[in-house]
Amino acid sequence: MVRLVALIISIVVQIIAGIIAFRFMKLTKYRLSWILLSSSFVFMAVRKIIQLFGFFRGAPSYTWQMIDEWLGVVVSVFIIWGVILMREIFISLKRADIDRLRSENRIITAIINTEENERKRFAKDLHDGLGPILSTVKMSLSALTGKIKDATGEMVLDNTGNLINEAINAIKEISNNLSPHVLSNFGLSSALNAFVSKINQTEAIEIDLRSNMDGVRLHNDKEVVIYRTVCELINNSIRHAEASKIDIELNRHRKFVTLQFSDNGRGFDAASDAGGMGLPNIKARVRSVDGVFIIESLPGSGTNALIKITE
Fold this sequence. Notes:
By secondary structure, this protein is of the alpha+beta class. The protein has helices at residues 2-23, 32-57, 62-143, 151-178, 181-186, 188-202, 220-239, 279-288; strands at residues 206-211, 245-253, 256-263, 292-297, 303-310. The protein is built from eight helices and five strands; from the N terminus they run ααααααβαββαββ. Strand 4 and strand 5 form a beta hairpin. The longest helix is centred in the N-terminal third of the chain and has 82 residues, at 62-143.
């Protein structure tokens, strides 16, 4: 009785498995490997049905025994052949995954390029639009210098001139921050040095930058990604980590460029807080140029980050 129940359950399970496998056949685009494996379930169910008939008839005939044995051979051949051909499906899945990653990288690269182009356009409009207007206003005020005699008027004129100078300097600084001309003209190392020097002048934080890439140029997309990433990491160290010291090393090693970043801030739990402080955006940017971004941090132990990009 136990054998009968086992045979019936085996038949039902194998028929269901065969039906499910055949229903998935369209998804596999009718690949031969899947057809063979699906057929194997059907033949295994047929073998169990033959064994069930033999159970009710008593001793099975020699013919049915031979059919059962040869069906076993067919099932084994189909399974082996199907598993061998199954490699094609895995290759297709891997290829699809690679194509998906490439598509994601192309989209992210397009977004980055669009952002940079908009930054450049806005910086140019700001510099070329407001800059000449303020310069003209300053020239007009200069023309009034000899015509105003009273002390109050001269003081107002001087204050107005100073404010215009501050506005012109502010426009230059904003324009440069939006799209640093040093980056496009002189490269990554020079741009980072200029950026770090401006921050060090504030004396709010000490940044030590070391590099062996003076005069070395990378592809524009890679330079932009590294530059924006460093800016974001420095911003996080100042605003969130309250760090007082940052060390940055930008080095070229044969075909690779690495950037090591560390601060002495309060740190955070990198494992559970990976979605904060713009880190997903940084990872996506670095990945878009086939780079690797690794960050390590614990509360109270500062933050360490590594960027590795193929030159």
